[in-house]
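Appendix B. Raw example, untouched.
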Amino acid sequence: MNTVFQFIKQNIVCDILVSLGLLAIYITYIGAPRASKKSDHYVSGIPTVGGFLIALGFLTSSCKWLAIIGLFEPAILYLIFKGIPDLIKWQISLKNWVPPEELEGGRVITYSSQKNRYEEIHIPNPECPRNSIVYPIERYIIIAVDSGHNLIGMELNGNYHLLLEAETVEECKKRASKKAKWKNR
């Protein structure tokens, strides 16, 4: 017992950070749900902050191995075992995405890889004419139609917009962003 008090005396920064971490965990998992129930409004805590403060506190102490205690906070465990693997699976599915055989009545000839915003389309908002709705284009698709070729811009959620009607595939590729990396069907 004497060594515990000695550890506490020697590691003041650790004590402060661990205390703040425990307070954050209390607020997140006990205080916020009670406040939500009492006020009939959602009150949010701040997940992972308590665990990170505890880990940081023990990393400043002489017993650094105790920092692993901070990783046992529920939100950090969720992040490690569920959040990060799901994010990796989602990224892999984005890379392996293949468009349908036909789109908008035309056969898909080529498409670009997914990128975070090749460009944005601004369409006037009918409810408020001074504002516009912004659609991020994160993928291009070129389809063959009776009159030539169409360049279609696709959002990540699957919505698409006709960007150009052209006679050749090369015209469509010129209209698209220079950063687009094209894949053939």
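End of appendix B.
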